[in-house]
Structure formats: C-alpha cells, structure tokens
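User: Can you predict the 3D structure for this chain?
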Amino acid sequence: MIQSWSDYKRYYYADLKQTGIAKRSIFHRLKDRRYKFYRSLRRTEWIMNCHPGWHGIFSKLAQMLHTRLCNKYQWTILPNVFGEGLSIVHVGTIVVAADAKVGVNCRIHVCVNIGHAIAKGQSGVPIIGDNVYIGPGAKIFGPIQIGDNTAIGANAVVNTSFVEGNCTIAGSPARKISDNTSRRYIEV
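Assistant: Here is the predicted structure, written as structure tokens:
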C-alpha cells in the first residue's frame, strides 16, 4: 500500500515497467490508455493513504476522476487492491472487488472477474499472492487464497484455494494442471 510519495513513484514506475510502457517514448505513452489509468489509480491511492486530512475536496475529486476513467475503459479496479507491478494486457472488461487483495507483479487479461461469493453461509473475496498471471476470461471468487507464482489459465473458474502456488491451474472448476509457474509471463 502506498504510504509516501516515493512509494507512489515506485508503484507507478513498476506498473509501467511490467506493461512495457516504460520503454516507449512520451508520445506513445500519452496515446496508451493504461498510462493514464496507472497514474490515476496510484495518485488516488497516494491521496487517500497519505493525506487523510484531504478527504474533503481533493480526495473526492481524485476518486471521482478515477471512477470516470474506470467507466470509460470498463475496468473496475479500485484503489488499494493491487500491489506494485500491475500489468493490464488488453482493453476490455475487468472487474475486481474493492476489498480483494492482489500482490505485486500481477498480469491480468481481458474479461477477468475477481469477486465475492456467498457459499454455505461464508462470504469473502480472494487473496492473490505475488507474481500471478491471470489469463483471459478467468473467474476467481470466494474466500480463497492463490499462492505466489501461479499461472491461471484462460476461462478458468477458481473457487477453491491453491495456497501452495508455483503451479498452473486451469479448467472449470480449476485444478492444478502442471508445475509450470508464472515466470515466463511476468518480468520480475
């Protein structure tokens, strides 16, 4: 979680590096919607976490502008969910619950849903570890944990925990299909 201006810069540049935007010229950066989105997300986190006295107009304005950008790009990614190194690969719908927690270096594709589930009287959201690759169309829901270095395959439905990590999971319902990790998809 961002606690200072140096944290803000570190998170923001880690996002740009993971996405590959950091290597581009400023002209190409300004054309890329992810550049604007990362800046908006991290700036909103900085204002909310570091300046609680600003919960007046500045905080509300930052949240309003970020929500407007989320609506425009169809990405429901609220502040303080993702660690540094968020990489949004393609344009398209992404929905992440506000109280979900995702570690550093997460690479997320289009049509991913990370959300709440109510099963047998228990409700909760996923806690996802570091260096996780989430393939297109994956659905991750419920009070589950995904371990570090996990690759989640396309269209997987994950509703059980995979705490051990260091594997590839896929299918509906998801199950471990190999010991390959997410290392080939994520730059660490």
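The two ends are 19 Å apart (CA to CA). The longest strand covers residues 112-115.
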